[in-house]
Amino acid sequence: MSAIRFFLCAIPGVTFLYLAAVVGLSGTRPSFAPTSAETEALVVQKLRASDELTTAILSLQSATKVSSNNEVFNFPIGTTEILYIGYGEIRAGIELSAIAIGNVTSADGVVTVVLPAPKILDSKIDVSRSGVASYDRSWLSPDKVVELTEYAQRKALREMLEQSCGQGILEEANKKSAIAIQGLLSSTGLTVVVKTQEPDLTGCREGAE
């Protein structure tokens, strides 16, 4: 708290009136608002408290049929075929660890955050629920159920990835990430504007062959 006081000083024949501002009489110190750079650094630190943010999850089922031929001189003499029923889960969101100072700007009391592009964070087959529904092996065909099952799992996961991306999982993750970050930063008391980027489609095409 500041106080203004008047002091009267007398010298023989002359009287002076002084106006003095006495600052901090209550023991408090003047506060200073953080600079833009400090605000940006604090926001980045808060956002990077976690490595990633999952905002969309899809649980899918796939029926995948795969086969293998037994050939002699390029002539098929037997076939092994399985039908694999797969249950999987696809997670999408943003990598918070990718947020850097360049993603956050502060000007005129407004903090603007540009989020990383949403991407597929994880995709997996639930092997405890999935399995071979049917197995057909002709007489001259070798037993390749193990190899075919592994291939069917990869193929099923690839199909699930394509299906989830086609259903808009990345777009949904984008919207929900913006809402989540807005809510996370609301506790700071700052005026925050969150911007998103176009989805990263790489994960939609990374299904194992």
Provide an overview of this structure.
- There is one protein chain.
- With 209 residues, the protein is an alpha+beta fold.
- It has one domain.
- 25% of the residues lie in helices and 42% in strands.
- The chain has 3 helices and 9 strands; from the N terminus they run E-E-H-E-E-E-E-E-E-H-H-E.
- Strands 3, 4, 7 and 8 form a 4-stranded antiparallel β-sheet that branches. It has a 3-stranded mixed β-sheet with strand order 5-6-9, with helices on one face. It has a two-stranded antiparallel sheet with strand order 1-2.
- The model is unreliable at 1-27 (pLDDT under 50).
Total individual domains: 1
| Element pattern in H and E | EEHEEEEEEHHE
Q: Unreliable segments (pLDDT under 50, ≥5 consecutive)?
A: 1-27
Largest sheet: 4 strands, antiparallel
Please tally the β strands and state the result.
Answer: 9
N- and C-termini, Cα separation: 72 Å
Structural class category? alpha+beta
Can you give the helix content as a percent range?
Answer: 10-25%
The oligomeric status of these chains comes to: single chain
Mean pLDDT across all residues, rounded?
82
So what's the overall shape? rod-shaped
Percent of residues in beta strands? 35-45%
Q: Report Rg.
A: 33 Å
Total DSSP helices:
3
Looking at this protein, list some descriptive labels.
alpha+beta, 3 helices, three-stranded mixed beta sheet, disordered N terminus
Please outline what is shown here.
By secondary structure, the protein is of the alpha+beta class. It contains three helices and nine strands. It has helices spanning 36-47, 145-166, 169-186, and strands at 2-11, 14-23, 53-72, 75-94, 104-107, 110-114, 119-125, 131-137, 191-195.
